[in-house]
Design a protein that fits this description.
single chain, 402 residues, alpha+beta, Beta-lactamase, 3-stranded antiparallel sheet, 13 helices, 15 strands, 31% helix
C-alpha cells in the first residue's frame, strides 16, 4: 500500500495565551476562539493539582488547530516542562489507531468486517470459532478476554504472535456476539495477527507508512530508540484502581486480573520500559502526542481528503455492540474498534462521538456533527470514578462551540 500524498497543508500558527498556574503551562488558541480563557483556566487548575504532566489539543475537521495546551512536568518531582514534543504511552488510545488501520484495509477491499476470521487466519477456526466474524473481534464480543495459558514472562506478554496462537486455539467464554466485554489486551493480539494475515505487514508498520509519515503525525507503535528521551514516564496517582464499576464479585475480579495481568496495577510498571515501547502492542502500546492524536481524528472526519471514505467511517462508527460490560459492569458502546458515546458521558455532553479512552485518563476522539476532534494525554493515571480532568475540559469546549 502506498502512502497518502494528499496530506493537508500546514495551518496558521495559534496565538499564545498566558495561563496562571504554579506549574509550567503553555496555552495557544486560534484567534478569536470562544472561552479560550476559561479553557486555559480549567487546564491550569488541573495541571497545578497534579504531580505530572498533561496536554489537551483540539482541531477543526480537516486539521485546523484550535487549542493547544501543555502543562506540568515530564517526570514526577522533576523540573523539565511538559511540552509540545513530549511523548507518552497512549494505553488503550492505541485501539483507536488500530481501528483506523483496520478501516484503511476495509476501505481498500482487503478486510471485510462481516467475513469469518478464519478466511484470513485459518488456525482461528479451532475451539468452535469457525463462524466468528471479524466484527466480533473489533466490537469486543468474541469472548476471548484473556490468554490461556497466561503469559509466563514479560517477554511472552509482548510476543504478539505467540499470544495470538494461544487465542486461536482457545474456545470463547460465550457464544461470540451474544455478550459485550472489553478485551483489554487480547484485542491487540487478535487484531495484530489478523492485520498481518490480511496485509502481510504489521500494525506498527502500517501506522507509520500509511498515517504517521504521510500525515506528519508524531505517533509510534514500535518506538525508535532514538525517540526514548522524549517519553514522559507514567505513574499512578495514590489509590489508583481499575474496573471501578465492578464491585464485590471475586469471580469476575479474578477475570479482570487475568485480563490485565497486573500490567496496570503491579509494581514493575512495564509500560515505562524500553521493551514495552519497542513492542507493537496494538491494544495499548502506542506513544504519541495529544496534538497528533487530535489531528488524526480531525482528518478522519474531514469533508475533503479524509483518511478513510465517509462510507467506511460510517460503517466503523455505527453501533455494533452495547450494554453493560459482562465482566466489568461498565456501560459500553462500540463501533468497529472505536468506542462510541455512552450513557455515562465518557465523550462529554456532545453526541454522536467516537474515539478511544486510555487507562488512567487519556481520551482521544471526535464530535463529527460539531466538526471537532480532541485529545487529552497525561502521565498521571487517575481512577475513572474520580478523574475530572478531561470531563471538565470537554464541558467547556462543548459550551464554547455550542
Amino acid at each position: 500500500m502506498s502512502p497518502r500524498s494528499d496530506a493537508p497543508a500546514a495551518e496558521a500558527p495559534l496565538v499564545p495565551r498566558e495561563a496562571s498556574a504554579r506549574v509550567p503551562v503553555t496555552a495557544a488558541f486560534a484567534d478569536g476562539f470562544p472561552a479560550a480563557e476559561r479553557l486555559a483556566e480549567v487546564f491550569a487548575s488541573h495541571a497545578e493539582a497534579g504531580a505530572g504532566g498533561m496536554s489537551f489539543a483540539v482541531h477543526r475537521a480537516g486539521g485546523e488547530p484550535l487549542v493547544r495546551l501543555h502543562g506540568g512536568v515530564t517526570e514526577r518531582g522533576g523540573e523539565q516542562p511538559w511540552g509540545a514534543d513530549t511523548l507518552a504511552v497512549l494505553f488503550s488510545g492505541t485501539k483507536g489507531l488500530t481501528a483506523t488501520v483496520a478501516a484503511l484495509l476495509t476501505d481498500r477491499g482487503l478486510l471485510d468486517p462481516e467475513a469469518p476470521v478464519a478466511r484470513y487466519w485459518p488456525e482461528f477456526a479451532a475451539g468452535g470459532k469457525e463462524d466468528v466474524r471479524v466484527h466480533h473481534l473489533l466490537s469486543h464480543t468474541v469472548g476471548l478476554p484473556y490468554v490461556d495459558p497466561d503469559p509466563s514472562s514479560a517477554e511472552e506478554r509482548v510476543d504478539n504472535r505467540l499470544m495470538a496462537a494461544r487465542l486461536a486455539a482457545q474456545a470463547p467464554l460465550w457464544e461470540p456476539g451474544t455478550r459485550v466485554a472489553y478485551h483489554a489486551l487480547t484485542y491487540g493480539y487478535l487484531m495484530s495477527e489478523l492485520i498481518l494475515r490480511v496485509s502481510g505487514t504489521t500494525v506498527g508498520t502500517l501506522l507509520r507508512t500509511e498515517l504517521a509519515e504521510p500525515l506528519g503525525l508524531d505517533l509510534h507503535l514500535g518506538l525508535p530508540e532514538a525517540e526514548e528521551a522524549r517519553v514522559a514516564p507514567i505513574f499512578r496517582a495514590e489509590g489508583y484502581r481499575i474496573s471501578t464499576f465492578l464491585k464485590d464479585d471475586p469471580e469476575r475480579r479474578a477475570i479482570v486480573d487475568r485480563m490485565y495481568g497486573s500490567s496496570l496495577t503491579g509494581g514493575d510498571m512495564p509500560f515505562n520500559t524500553r521493551t514495552y515501547h519497542a513492542a507493537e502492542m496494538s491494544a495499548g502500546g502506542a506513544l504519541g502526542t495529544a496534538e497528533s492524536m487530535s489531528r488524526l481524528y480531525s482528518l478522519l472526519i474531514a469533508g475533503d481528503h479524509p483518511v478513510v471514505s465517509a462510507e467506511t467511517l460510517a460503517l466503523f462508527t455505527r453501533t455494533w455492540s452495547e450494554g453493560k460490560d459482562a465482566i466489568n459492569d461498565r456501560p459500553v458502546r462500540f463501533g468497529l474498534g472505536y468506542e462510541l458515546d455512552d450513557p455515562i458521558g465518557t465523550y462529554g455532553p456532545v453526541r454522536p462521538a467516537f474515539g478511544h479512552t486510555g487507562a488512567g485518563g487519556g481520551l482521544h476522539g471526535a464530535w463529527p456533527e460539531r466538526g471537532l476532534a480532541f485529545s487529552f494525554l497525561t502521565s498521571e493515571m487517575q481512577s475513572e470514578d474520580v478523574d475530572r480532568r478531561v470531563k471538565d475540559l470537554l464541558a467547556v469546549l462543548a459550551e464554547a462551540d455550542g
